[in-house]
Each structure stands twice: as structure tokens, then as C-alpha cells.
Design a protein that fits this description.
Elements (H helix, E strand, L loop, with lengths): L1 E3 L2 E3 L1 H5 L10 E6 L9 E6 L4 E6 L5 E7 L2 E2 L12 E6 L2 E13 L5 E11 L4 E10 L5 E3 L5 E3 L9 E3 L6 E2 L21 E5 L8 E8 L4 E8 L5 E9 L2 E9 L6 H7 L3 E3 L4 E12 L1 H15 L8
Antiparallel strand pairs: 1-2, 3-4, 4-5, 5-6, 6-7, 8-9, 9-10, 10-11, 11-22, 12-21, 13-20, 14-17, 15-16, 16-19, 17-18, 18-22, 19-20
Length: 309
Amino acid sequence: MVSLWGRPWTRRELLARVGRLDQVAGVQLVEAADGAERGVRMLRFTAGSGFGFDVLVDRGFDIGRAWLGGRPLAWWSPVGLIGPGLHEPGGDECVLWAEGEVTQAAVFGEQLALRRRVEADLGGTALRITDTVTNTGATACPHMLLYHCNVGFPVVDADAELAYPAGPGTCVSDACDPGYRRLLAPRPDFVEECYEHDMMPGPDGMVNAAVINREAGLGVYQRYSRAALPHHITWRQLGAGTYVVAMEPSTNRDAGRLDARARGELQHLAPGEERRYTLEIGALAGTDDLDAFADRAGLLAGQARDPAR
């Protein structure tokens, strides 16, 4: 059963009212045609709820712009863009999806394949990424993965906050701010900051973290498995013109491969071995949704361990 525009719909009821599903929601292949972006292909998802996003086909299936009710959710770099989707009804449900594969290979080096599936439910306000990383080479290969998720204005603005199920984070940058969980207005002289968090999962093993803006009545959340992605880094860059907060669930700490190797934390994939990751990114809208999310995060934060140093 699909929930859309305040009421439930069966597949029969919905299809009786439209010429085809694309009238309500769908996935459309489009191509940028201006300037440096010319030729970049995008899969444009529209979920029928006012939620939509672009999948950048020629950028490794990264997520580009995202919006809810016409309001942007993601930060968009001033650089812009440089350099097959289907809908799948199943009973009275409908999932919009696209799949692609990225190869990372070098002679005498790694041979990795990333298979990515992006999904969104008709009537929903979230997208799901399922990644399968496979070592297709003949030798073991180091493996690290980080999801860099940029959140922008109007979610990011003065007095917006980080709703995390975690205690105080560990600053891993030169610039630090004890009150970093509450955001500031843009400042021309802002110096970027990074914080690591030990996130507390819920009973289902999943972590739910968000940037929420109560004044705007809008937020962006992410949901992922703590077992698969045990580390989380937050990047704050609240500069004028570069005004963005990134939430980054990761297999490793912020310091990189040499640090992971020194700590004995560097993972390897054996020949033919694969790892599977899932990440949900969605929008929160309205006071009730924002308060409920923040309350759940606050409850878990009270159970969090001291941050690892």
C-alpha cells in the first residue's frame, strides 16, 4: 500500500487515475547541456511526495542535488559538475531504482568493483543506497569506505543542530569549538573543523543521525549499520560561500590508511571477497518529526560511551 498526499492508495486505485506512473513519480535520464557540465548524465528521481534527488551516472553513481517541497537539502559546490532507471511495482507497493557498477583497477595494484543500487519508495521522503564492494583481483587488497554526505542551506543555518546518538565528539582538526553541535551563521574567516563520534545504535543495530533546523521545520537524517560502519566523522565548514556540514559514516577513523595500519584496524578483502553496505538518507519535515528524532537521539546519547581517543 502506497501512502501519498495524506491517504493510502492501492496500485489499482492509483493507476486508474494516471496515464502512466511517471505522471506521479519516476526516474528520468537527463543530461546537462551547459558549460563544464555538458554531457554529464543524471538519473532524476521524483517520489511523488515532493522529495527528489539526482544520481550522477558519470560520477560513480554519487547523489547530487536533493530537495523536499522545492527546498534544497544538499550543499552544491560552486564548481558544479565537471567532466538506466526503472520503476518496479510489487503488489500495492512501488520502488523506484537504478543500478550501476564502478571499477577501480590498476596494473600491479588493486582490482575492485563497486555495485551500487539506489532506491526510493513512491510517496516516500528518503533514498536507500546499497553498495557491494568486491575484490576481483588475485591478491588481498586494503579496504576503507567513507560516505561523505553534504547537507546545505536551508537545513544548515544559524541555530540548526546536530541530533546525534553520541556523547561529546573528539576534535581531530586544528580548529575546534566546544559548542560545535549548534551551527552558526556564515563567517568569512571560518576555519574548517572535524569531529569523530562514537555513535550509539538502536536495538536494531542501526545508527540514526541528523542535522535539524527547528526554525525552518526541516532536517536531513542518515541511517546505517553500526557494525558495518563503526566510525562517524562530522565536517563543519561554515564559511561564507562554502557553508556546509558533512555527516560521514565510515569503516575507519578520519586519519587515513597509515593511521589505520598503525592501530591494527586496516581491513583487507581476500580475492573474491565482498562487503555489503546500506545507507539511508532522508528528509525530516515539521516540528513533530524533528522533535521525535531529537528525543530518540538524546535518549541514546545518554547511554553512549566516552569518545575513543
